[in-house]
Each structure stands twice: as structure tokens, then as C-alpha cells.
What does this fold into?
Amino acid sequence: MKATIVDDVAQLYGVEHWGAGYFGVNRLGHTVVRPVKSDSREADLHEIVQELVEKRTLSTPLLLRFPQILGTQLQRLCLAYESAAREFAYSGEHFPVFPMKVNPRREVVDEFLRQGVDQSFGLECGSKAELMAALSLEQTPESLLICNGFKDETFLRLALLGVQAGKRVVVVIEKLNELKTLLELAKLAGVSPLIGLRAKLYSRGSGKWASSGGESAKFGLTTSELLECIRLLRAEGLIAQLKLLHFHIGSQITDIKRVKNAMKEAARVYAKIRQMKVEVEFLDIGGGLGVDYDGSKTTFEASINYSVEEFANNVVYTIKSVCDDEKVPHPHLVTESGRVMTAYHAVFVTSIRDEIETFAEEIPIAAIDEDDPQVIYELKSLLDGINSKNYREYYHDALDDKDELHTQFNLGLISLEDRGKGEVLFWEICARSLKFAQEANLQDEEFDALRRILASKYLCNFSLFRSAPDSWAIGQLFPIMPIHKLNEMPTDFATLVDVTCDSDGCIKKFVDLKDVKQVLELHNFNDKNGQPREPYYLAIFLVGAYQEVMGSFHNLFGLPHEAQVVIDTDGSYHITKLVPASKISDMLAFARFDKTQCTESFRRLITAQLAAGKLNQTQADEAIQKYESGVSGSTYLE
Ligand SMILES: Cc1ncc(COP(=O)(O)O)c(C=O)c1O
It folds into this structure.
């Protein structure tokens, strides 16, 4: 195998940059996954997918979960804080908590709690449902259960139940009224919860979620509200319960400078509160530690210009400096990092089902003669005469002719056949112009746009709205690449479209080290007759944070099959768990269609057709049987 081609192809997709040591390409030209960064143990992703498809008869889309990566990320985060504390002689401890909203799947939460026993790993919840789930899970006695978000009485009562159950619950107050209600309920229940206050900082993050911080942020107490809470707690004799100060300036902070600024401000607020003789012990710095989705290490919104270690160093050093300056104790640091801990562990695999071309190359150019309309004649002359010197000018002329073609068609001057002939000629001129521009290495907006227009659309068996919703909702970039064939240079350029009936269901932006790619390099997967030669699998990486929980059932496409994979010391892998995909019946139930009622209604329709003599008994029986078996089928293309 030619190592150089594999290396070049890996370089093309940038896996070495965004893969963070977890992903790479082996000599067979397959993508590999490692449980620990740059580990010698590596499992072949293509092999895993083949086993799932061929031996276990599953079909794409597939979500692969690698729980070991969750553990590795957790250890990395904790180590970063430990070594920062050592380096800067920081006396507070680190209390990592997992914000459940990032990925509330049982498999994920359980894995963190299992792997984080030595780190007093805790949970953060922002809703009653998350809290209910959290209350059922076993945590170490010293670990925290942080309750954030807007709370009604039921939420607060649940939090108090947690205290009664022996959990170290901290109710974080987002609004003044919340505190008043909490105090009343706590008095009634005879329970004293730990209390936290969420401060609204003046500092903002950077990137897509910058507006989560700053004065107009949705959450948090203003300075005067903070002071009022303190006054109220003192008046009630409960000031000793105030143990935590929290802030969160937004997810995916792209620029380390913003982190330092926020830490300075927050540490100052903490110090001033301490100086008011309030023994706050914990400073909860929220999330925000980002993921380098494009591997560029820049402040671009899909990247970050720091490492986990640098983030931790900045947090610890800045808070220590302010506290020493203000002569207050170093607080214990609570981190609510979700994205960075979960993003890498999930890989989504889809397969390409078809190609949608802007123009079908296989349609031949019809013979043109003098009887054809002038505009078609002109397009044919342009096509015959185009060359490497005149292609730009001829391309412009062809654009004019195409407008003229459509004007004449709309005026009823030319036939549908003429319009068809003219369009085939026009697209052929475009294709040749682009070829000349590429040969000349021309960097030009006009021809870049043409390249995008002419790029194929590869139809992938998945729903963007279900499996990578942030790509649609906020234009989030995820690394995407084939998981095999990487020992061949890709020759096609394409954008990706999903199988939903929604034109927004497409991916037109791809990660790149220096820019954002408008098309993705892909292999031609068809044989000469335009039929797929073999399955062609693409993976969307780094989808472990937010995507699963934010995905929707648009068009009633359901959850994909899910496989949990563990990698052994010798690189062999084990599929430790399979969660089947949603069936059509699940999606019917979601939309409140009762499966039995649906079948009965359909049966009545068929019976009426039978009675009217439009179907015979065998046809009627078959139709009903097909409907019945159809409801347990897959929602995706089979
Ligand atoms: C209060 C709070 N904590 C933690 C997080 C998790 O942030 P991240 O995923 O950036 O670590 C969020 C998400 O925005 C949040 O709102």
C-alpha cells in the first residue's frame, strides 16, 4: 500500500488536526478510533460498521458510542486542574460536574459517574426531568448535585427531597423570587439546602454563544439582586447555607482572553462576598471550554485558540491571583464542562445512497442544425469553440444565452424540447469552463461559485434534524469524512443532502484548516452504469455533545441504531451494547397515531375495495399484511 496516498488523503480531511489523537487513518485506508489520545490501540471504524451491517444485519444510519473516550476526556480535564493547582499552589479542590443537558443519555451519565468516583464527580441539572434522573443515580457523598435553571415549586421540592436523600444538593438561585420560595419550602420541609447564587457577569464569552454572558444575558442575578439575596439570607439566619457562587458566560468560548477576563471579574465578586463575612466555599465557573471542530486552533467559531490544560491554567492562575490580592481563601472550583467531555465519544455513520447532479452528464447533446432557434445555435457554437484562452468570455456569453433561452420559453417562442436542448448545452459549457479554470489554477469567486453549483449532491441515509441538528440550526461545522477508501485520492466534489423532504436538510459547509470548504472531496462510488459499486460510508465526527438531545423527529425519521464499542489492549473491539433504531410504529406513536387503530382503518379501506370488486381476496390479504409488517420497519431508506 502506498503510504503517501493515505497520508495525503488524511491530510485532505484534516483528521490529524480535529481528531485530537482519537481518530486517524490506517494503512488500509480506513478511519481508526483510539480510546486514549494517540494510543497504539486502535480499532478500525470500517470493520466495526461492516460487522454491524453484515453480521448483525443493522443498516445505516448508525450512532457509535465509545465510552472509553468519555473517561479519557474526564481524566484529562481533572488532570489539567490538578496540575494547574500544583503549579500555582492553589489550595482549593476541583469538583467536576456534568451538565446533563449536553447529553442526558443514561449510557453517558452512568459512564461519567463510574469513571469519576475518585474525582468526586457530580451532576448539574437544569430541569425537573434531569433532576429526577439525577436523584436516582448513585453519587459519592462529597460530590455535588447542582440545580440550575428556572425553577417552580415542584423543582424546588424535588431538590429538597434530594437533600433528604443525603445528596449534596446546591440550589442555584437564578431569580430573587426563587430564593423566597425556596426558603418558604425549606422551612416547611424542615430541610436546609446548600444555596448558590448565579451572577450575571459583565464579561462575555466569544463565538456563537457570546450572548449567554454580559449584562443582557438570560440568566443570573445583577449585583443589586445578589446583595439583596445576601441580605435576605442573613435576615432569615440562613447565610451559612450560601456556599456557592456560579456564572457561565456561554458555551464554546473561542478565545482564551475572554476566559481570563471572566475569571478576573468572577473572582473579584467572590472575594467581595467573602469579605462581607459570607463563607462561600465554591466558585462554579460553568462550562464554555470549547472543542476544536476544525482543528485550526484559532478563534474561529468552530475552533478554540487554547488547550484544555491552558484553559485550566488560566482559570486557576487568575482566580488565585485575585484571591491572594484580596486576601481571601482560594475557593473550591466547580466546573460544568459538557461539550469538551462528550463531543469526541460519539461518531455518526451514514451511507451514500445516490447522487443528485446539477445536470445529468449521461444525457447526450442532441444534434443541432440551422432549423433550431438562434439561441440554441449560439450555445452550440460556444460549446464547439470554447478553449483555455476564451473560456471566461464564452462562459459569460453562455450565461446571457441561458437567460435568453428562458425568456423565449416564457414568451411561448420555443418548445420544451428546445429548452431541454439549450440547458444541456449550457451546463456542458459550464463544466468545460470550470475545467479550464481549474487547469489554470484560477482562484476566482465566479468560478468558485460555479464549482459549488456543479458539485454533486450526495444523498445520505440520515436526517440532519435528528443526528446533527446544530448543523442546520446554527450552522455548526462538524468534521466529516469517509471511513474507508482513504487509500485512493477522492476525485469528486459534493455537498451532502439528507433523506428528509426538507431542502434545509443539507450540509454545504465543511471544516478546513485555513477556511471553510464549500464542497467536500469524496470518492466516486458509482460504476460505469451509475450504480453504486459497494456501500460508501461517511462519518460525522464529534457529535457527542448536544446533538442527540437536540435532534428532532422531523418528517418522522427516528433514532438511528446505536452501538457501544469498547476497544481492547490489542486493538480488538467489542460491541458491548446495541440499542435498536426507532421503528415506524414508534414514530406513529410519537405523532399520536395508534398503531392498532391505523391498521384497523387501513383494513376497512381495503375491505371496501374488496366489496367493490376492485381487489380480489388474495390482493386484499396481501395489502393488509404488508401494511401490518410495514409499521415495524425502519424509518430510513432500506
Ligand atoms: C449553566 C451551564 N453550565 C454548563 C454548560 C455547558 O457548557 P459547555 O458545554 O460549553 O461545557 C451550559 C451550556 O451552555 C450551561 O448553560
Observations:
- The chain has a mean pLDDT of 94.
- The chain is about 40% helix and 15% strand.
- The pocket of pyridoxal-5'-phosphate is lined by residues 99, 102, 148, 248, 251-252, 286-289, 336-339 (CB under 6 Å).
- The longest strand covers residues 346-356.
